[in-house]
Amino acid sequence: MIIFNYLLICLIFGTTFLAIKIGVDAASPPFFSAGIRFFVAGLLLFLWMVWRKKASFTLLLRKEMLFTGIGLTFGTFSTLYWAEQYVSSGIAAVLSATGPLMILLLQLVVLRQKPSARAAIGCLVGFTGVILLLLPSLTLSASGWWVLGSMAILFGEFFYASGALYSKRVIQQFPKASPIALNAAQMLYGGLLLLVLSASTEHVQINSLLTPSAIGSLFYLIVIGSMVGHSLFYWLVAKTNPVFPATWLYISPLIALTIGVLFYGESMTWVTMIGVITIIVGTVIANLDGLLSLVEKRKNRSEKLRELRS
């Protein structure tokens, strides 16, 4: 069941980038679409947790939920949705996979935590991949908006990294609260902030939201992407640990690239593909210590179970 759910979240998260692209291309305002997605998904999940008596409305009064929502939802997805007006869904997925590298960078620069040699090498390899990925378009004929979109996604990953580091403290601060309830609360706040941003920057036309592409994209992202995907992610965290489920970042970009090329006519060059592979390899190397620790723990647990049975 664990492996099946893991493969399912890899598939879900890999397809959300194309779903965003379809909605944006259908003229759905990016900030409004993102705001509706996370506000509705967060509200439904939170009410469900309250109904199951695993959350209380007082949780929404905590400033920690607001700060987490700014990092994990508002900052991350405002930039991603805006950027996908100009960047293909596959490239957006790969650039979003730099999140773990940004976490290591913030730990080094802000928290003054010295990374291991392996993590440092992984960061260098990963950012080399980013340069290779952007290289084909960094020409005189390149679209300035494409470059700005790519930079925006990378900037959004700094928000994600900040939110991820902060959310670890929040989870420890609220040990009795369900991780799903905490995630729902931060999505509520993040979605609300996105709607405020939309109200001040976008002119929302109802007709653009009623096309089949826009409705289908929004429904898929709310139900499958946010509610099902994130719930499965936190279920895996509870059943395993925070490291294993996060490895979807190594698989989903390849899924996003493949479906973008096959089903949406997105292009791919050899240099870009080398950049993609380099980013993923760098991310794996940077997080290899955590992955090896996970394997060792699972091995020790299996040995203990064998000893108890014998």
Task: Briefly characterize the structure.
This protein is mostly helical.
Keywords:
single chain, 310 residues, mainly alpha
Number of domains: 1
* Biggest sheet layout: none
Poorly predicted runs of 5 or more residues: none
User: Into which percentage range does the β-strand content fall?
Assistant: under 5%
The number of helices is 14
What's the mean pLDDT score? 84
Broad shape: globular
Give the N-terminus to C-terminus distance in angstroms: 25 Å
- Taken in chain order, the helices and strands follow as HHHHHHHHHHHHHH
Structural class: mainly alpha
InterPro entries: AA-Vitamin_Transporters, EamA_dom, EmrE-like
Subcellular location: Cell membrane
Organism: Paenibacillus sp. SYP-B3998
Keywords: Cell membrane, Membrane, Transmembrane, Transmembrane helix
Descriptive notes:
The protein is mainly alpha-helical. The chain is 80% helix and 0% strand. Helix 5 packs across helix 7. The longest helix has 30 residues, at 144-173. It is globular. The protein starts with a helix and ends with a helix. The model has no long low-confidence stretch (mean pLDDT 84).
What topology emerges from the helices and strands here?
Blueprint lengths: L1 H24 L4 H22 L11 H21 L5 H8 L2 H11 L7 H18 L9 H30 L5 H23 L4 H4 L2 H28 L3 H4 L1 H17 L5 H17 L1 H22 L1
Pfam family, one: EamA
Membrane topology: Multi-pass membrane protein
Protein name: EamA family transporter
